[in-house]
C-alpha cells in the first residue's frame, strides 16, 4: 500500500544567486506597470501584450532557463524563472503572450525536439517573436485527454491534420500550436497512438475562432483543422509518445506560482483599502491573516516542488496537492473580499477595487478548471495514495 | 508521514514513544494525571533519551540544538498522542538554563498568569497542568518557575489541564526567570504545539487511509469509492500544508521562535485539525466514535491543541496585523515567513 511516506516536501530556500534577480525585476515592473489599473493587472498571465513581451525578451527574461546557443538565458536554474514569474504575477504584468511558450513549449522542444526544431523555434520564443498555444482539449474530451479524436495521418509530405481543438488559450494571438493528436489507432486505444505536433496556425485549413467568456474577455479559442498539410518535421518527440510527453509537462504547470497568485492583485488592492482609516475593521484584519497563513505554507510547498523538479524528480502528486490547495485559496479570496466589502455600510470603497473584484470573481471558476479540474487532481492524489 | 532518515533525534523519539506511549498508557495518564504510575514511568523513559535537554547548550549538558532541529522530535510526540508536555519542557529548560535557574525534575508546562492583589499568582488555564511537575509562568513581563505539587488546583474542561493558584509566600519562594522581553509565552508554546499537531494529523490520516483500504462495504473496500478517495485527497492536502507550516513555525537555530512564522504555523495547523478530524470521523463511521477505538486519542488531542496557545482567530489577527503594517506587496510578507535557512 502506498502512503504519503514516498512523498517529500522539505523546507527549501531559493538560492541566493537566483534571489539576486528579484530587485532588478521589481524595479523594472514597478515602472512598467505603474499606470496600469488594477483590474487590468489582475489578468496577468491571461493578459496579452506583444509589446510587453518584447520588453521582457530584451531584458533576457524569456527563456531564462534555456541554453544560450538557442538564444536563452544560458540555462539558469528553474529558481531564477520562479523568481521572475513570482514577481510578474504579483505585479500583475501582462505576460500572457509568451507565457505558454516560455513555460511549456520551448522547454518541451528543448527536451524532445530535433536539432532543427530547437534552432528554429527556441530563439524566436526567447526574442518574444513566437508565441505558442497548447492544443489538448477537444469538444467532449475535457479532462479525458485520451479520447482526443483530432488525427494526423502520414502522407508523402508529412501529415494531414483534421479535427478540432477547444479551450485553447490565446490561440488567436499565437503563431504556433503544439497539439496532442492521434497518429495511429482509435480512441479505444486510449493513451496509445497519441503524438504531439507543431502546427503553424497560418497554414491553409486552420481556422481560429475566439470564445467570449462570461467576463467579456476572449482568452479561449476553438481551432479547426481542415486537411491541414504539415511537414514531416511537425512531429515533436516520438510518434506514439504524446501521452508520456504531456504528462511530464503537466507537473511543471501544476505547481508553479501561477497556482497561488491568480487573486493576489485583488488581495493587495483590498489590503491597501483596509490600511486606510475607513477601510480598517477587525474582521478585515482577520481575513488578511487567514489568507496569509494559508498562502505562506503553500508558497513553501511550491518552492519545495520546484526543488524536486530541479533535482530531476517527477513530483506529480505533490504538484497536484499544490494546485488543488492553491486554486482553492485563489477562489476563496474574491469570495471573502466580497463578503467583507459588502458587509459594510461604507459607500467609499474605491471603484477600481470593485472593478478588480468583479473581474476576479467572474474569472475564478476557471482557476480550478485549467490545468486539470479539481476532481481530476483529487483522483491523481488518490492514485498516489494507492487507493486506485 | 515523510520520514527524515537523517534525523536521529526524531528516530530516538519514535522508538521510545512507539514502545512506551501506547494507547493503553495514554488512556492511563489521561485518567490518572500526575499521580498515575504510567505518568512517572513514561516521563522517566523520555528523560532517559536526553531529548528534554536537547535545546540546552552543550556546556549546560544539552545537545545545543535549535528549534528547527527538534521539529521531527515534536512531530513524533503528536504521532503518538503523547499526553505529556515534552516540547514545552524542552524550551522551558533552555530558558531556565540561559537564566541560570536550577531545573526541576519532571516535565514543565507553560502558562500565562496574573499576579493577585495579595501577592499570589493565578493561572486560569494551564495546559498539561494535571501532569506537569512545574509551570514556567509569564505574568506581565515577569517570568517565574512554580511547582505544581503544592499549588491550589481546579480541574479544567480538558482532562490534562488545570487552573492553578499559588500564595504570595509560594510566589516569593519561587525563582524569577530572566527572559528576553520580546518573547511571550503564547508564541513559545504555539511554536512547540504546532509540530505535534502535524504529527497527529499525519497519524489520523494514515489511520483513515488504512481503514479505507480494509473496511468493506457493498462488496469492496470503501477506499474504492470515489467519494472516499476525494475525502482522503483533501485530508492529505491539509496534512501536507499543516506540516509545512509547522516546520516554518519551528525553524531557526535558537530557542526563540519568530512570531509571524508561529502565527502561520498555529493558524494553519488549527485549521487543518478541524478539517482532518471531521473527515477522519466521517470515513471511520460509528466505530471511530467509540472510546475503545484509538482514533479518538488523536482527534480529541487535535481539538485540544487547536484550543491551546491561541486558536486560528487569534493568530489570524497577529498575521493580519503584520500584513497591514507592511505597506506594499503581500509577497514581501510571505517571503519573510517562508525564506528559512535550513539548520539540519
Which short descriptors sum up this protein?
heterodimer; A: 388 residues; alpha+beta; four-stranded mixed beta sheet; 13 helices; globular; B: alpha+beta; four-stranded antiparallel beta sheet; 52% helix; 12% strand
Structure description:
The complex is a heterodimer of chains A (388) and B (344). With 388 residues, chain A is of the alpha+beta class. In chain A, 46% of the residues lie in helices and 14% in strands. In chain A, a hairpin with an 8-residue loop joins strand 6 and strand 7. In chain B, the strands form three sheets. Chain B has a four-stranded mixed beta sheet, with helices on one face. In chain B, strands 2-3-7-6 form a four-stranded antiparallel beta sheet. In chain B, strands 9-10 form a two-stranded antiparallel ribbon. With 344 residues, chain B is α+β, with helices and mostly antiparallel strands. Chain B is globular. Helix content of chain B is 52%, strand content 12%. The model of chain B has no long low-confidence stretch (mean pLDDT 95). In chain B, helix 2 packs across helix 3 and helix 8 packs antiparallel against helix 9 (259-284). The chains are: A alpha+beta (388), B alpha+beta (344). The interface between A and B is large, with 57 and 62 residues.
- By secondary-structure content and strand pairing, the structural class of chain A works out as alpha+beta
Low-confidence stretches of chain A: none
Number of helices of chain B: 12
Outline the biggest β-sheet of chain B.
Answer: 4 strands, mixed
* Pattern of helices and strands of chain B: HHHHHEEEEEEEHEHEEHHHHH
- Derived from helix and strand composition plus strand pairing, the structural class of chain B reads alpha+beta
The counted number of beta strands of chain B is 10
User: Which percent bin holds the helix content of chain B?
Assistant: 40-55%
Largest interface pair: A-B, 57 and 62 residues
* Distance separating the two termini of chain A: 10 Å
Question: Strand order of the main beta sheet of chain A, please?
Answer: 1-4-5-8
Low-confidence stretches of chain B: none
Amino acid at each position: 500500500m502506498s502512503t504519503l511516506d514516498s512523498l517529500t516536501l522539505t523546507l527549501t530556500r531559493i538560492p541566493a544567486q537566483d534571489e539576486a534577480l528579484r530587485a532588478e525585476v521589481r524595479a523594472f515592473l514597478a515602472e512598467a506597470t505603474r499606470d496600469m489599473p488594477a483590474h487590468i493587472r489582475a489578468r496577468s498571465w491571461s493578459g496579452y501584450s506583444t509589446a510587453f513581451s518584447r520588453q521582457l525578451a530584451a531584458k533576457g527574461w524569456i527563456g531564462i532557463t534555456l541554453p544560450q546557443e538557442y538564444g536563452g538565458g544560458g540555462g539558469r536554474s528553474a529558481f531564477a524563472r520562479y523568481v521572475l514569474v513570482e514577481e510578474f504575477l504579483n505585479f500583475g504584468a501582462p505576460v500572457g503572450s509568451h507565457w505558454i511558450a516560455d513555460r511549456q513549449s520551448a522547454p518541451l522542444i528543448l527536451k524532445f525536439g530535433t536539432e532543427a526544431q530547437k534552432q528554429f523555434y527556441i530563439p524566436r520564443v526567447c526574442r518574444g517573436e513566437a508565441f505558442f498555444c497548447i492544443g489538448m482539449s477537444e469538444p467532449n474530451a475535457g479532462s479525458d485527454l485520451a479520447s482526443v479524436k483530432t488525427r494526423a495521418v502520414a502522407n508523402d509530405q508529412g501529415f494531414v491534420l483534421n479535427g478540432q481543438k477547444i479551450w485553447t488559450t490565446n490561440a488567436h494571438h499565437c503563431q504556433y500550436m503544439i497539439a496532442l493528436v492521434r497518429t495511429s489507432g482509435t480512441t479505444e486505444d486510449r493513451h496509445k497512438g497519441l503524438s504531439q505536433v507543431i502546427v503553424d496556425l497560418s497554414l491553409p485549413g486552420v481556422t481560429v475562432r475566439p470564445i467570449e467568456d462570461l467576463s467579456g474577455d476572449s482568452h479561449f479559442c476553438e481551432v479547426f483543422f481542415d486537411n491541414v498539410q504539415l511537414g514531416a518535421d511537425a512531429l515533436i518527440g516520438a510518434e506514439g509518445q504524446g501521452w508520456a510527453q504531456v504528462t511530464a509537462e503537466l507537473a511543471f504547470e501544476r505547481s508553479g506560482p501561477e497556482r497561488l497568485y491568480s487573486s493576489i492583485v485583488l488581495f493587495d488592492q483590498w489590503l491597501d483599502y483596509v490600511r486606510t482609516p475607513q477601510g480598517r475593521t477587525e474582521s478585515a484584519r482577520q481575513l488578511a491573516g487567514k489568507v496569509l497563513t494559508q498562502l505562506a505554507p503553500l508558497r513553501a510547498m511550491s518552492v519545495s516542488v520546484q526543488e524536486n523538479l530541479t533535482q530531476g524528480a517527477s513530483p506529480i502528486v505533490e504538484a497536484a496537492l499544490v494546485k488543488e490547495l492553491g486554486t482553492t485559496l485563489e477562489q476563496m479570496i474574491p469570495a471573502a473580499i466580497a463578503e467583507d466589502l459588502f458587509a459594510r455600510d461604507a459607500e467609499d470603497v474605491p471603484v477600481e477595487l470593485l472593478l478588480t473584484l468583479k473581474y476576479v470573481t467572474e474569472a475564478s471558476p476557471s482557476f480550478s478548471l485549467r490545468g486539470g479540474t479539481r476532481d481530476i487532481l483529487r483522483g491523481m492524489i488518490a492514485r498516489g495514495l494507492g487507493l486506485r | 508521514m515523510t520520514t527524515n532518515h537523517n534525523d536521529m533525534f526524531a528516530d530516538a523519539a519514535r522508538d521510545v514513544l512507539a514502545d512506551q506511549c501506547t494507547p493503553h498508557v495514554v488512556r492511563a495518564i489521561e485518567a490518572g494525571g500526575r499521580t498515575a504510575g504510567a505518568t512517572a514511568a513514561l516521563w522517566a523513559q523520555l528523560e532517559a533519551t536526553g531529548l528534554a535537554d536537547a535545546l540546552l547548550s552543550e556546556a549546560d549538558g544539552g545537545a545545543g540544538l535549535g528549534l528547527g532541529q527538534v521539529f521531527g522530535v515534536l512531530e513524533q510526540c503528536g504521532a503518538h498522542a503523547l499526553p505529556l508536555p515534552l516540547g514545552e519542557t524542552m524550551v522551558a529548560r533552555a530558558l531556565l538554563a540561559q537564566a541560570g535557574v536550577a531545573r526541576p525534575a519532571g516535565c514543565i508546562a507553560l502558562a500565562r498568569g496574573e499576579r493577585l492583589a495579595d501577592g499570589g499568582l493565578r493561572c486560569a488555564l494551564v495546559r498539561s497542568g494535571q501532569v506537569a511537575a512545574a509551570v514556567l509562568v509569564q505574568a506581565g513581563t515577569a517570568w517565574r518557575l512554580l511547582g505544581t505539587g503544592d499549588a491550589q488546583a481546579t480541574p479544567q474542561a480538558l482532562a490534562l489541564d488545570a487552573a492553578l493558584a499559588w500564595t504570595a509566600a509560594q510566589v516569593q519562594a519561587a525563582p524569577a526567570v530572566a527572559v528576553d522581553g520580546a518573547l511571550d509565552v503564547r508564541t513559545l508554546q504555539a511554536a512547540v504545539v504546532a509540530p505535534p499537531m502535524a504529527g497527529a494529523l499525519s497519524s489520523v490520516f494514515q489511520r483513515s487511509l488504512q481503514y479505507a483500504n480494509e473496511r468493506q462495504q457493498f462488496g469492496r473496500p470503501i477506499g474504492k469509492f470515489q467519494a472516499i478517495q476525494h475525502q482522503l485527497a483533501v485530508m492529505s492536502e491539509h496534512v501536507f500544508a499543516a506540516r509545512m507550516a509547522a516546520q516554518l513555525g519551528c525553524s531557526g537555530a535558537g530557542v526563540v521562535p519568530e512570531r509571524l512564522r508561529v502565527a502561520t504555523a498555529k493558524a494553519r495547523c488549527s485549521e487543518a485539525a478541524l478539517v482532518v478530524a471531521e473527515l477522519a470521523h466521517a470515513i471511520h463511521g460509528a466505530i471511530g466514535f467509540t472510546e475503545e477505538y484509538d482514533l479518538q486519542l488523536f482527534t480529541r488531542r487535535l481539538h485540544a491543541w487547536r484550543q491551546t496557545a491561541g486558536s486560528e482567530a487569534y493568530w489570524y489577527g497577529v498575521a493580519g496585523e503584520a500584513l497591514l503594517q507592511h505597506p506594499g506587496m503581500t509577497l514581501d510578507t510571505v517571503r519573510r515567513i517562508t525564506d528559512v535557512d535550513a539548520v539540519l
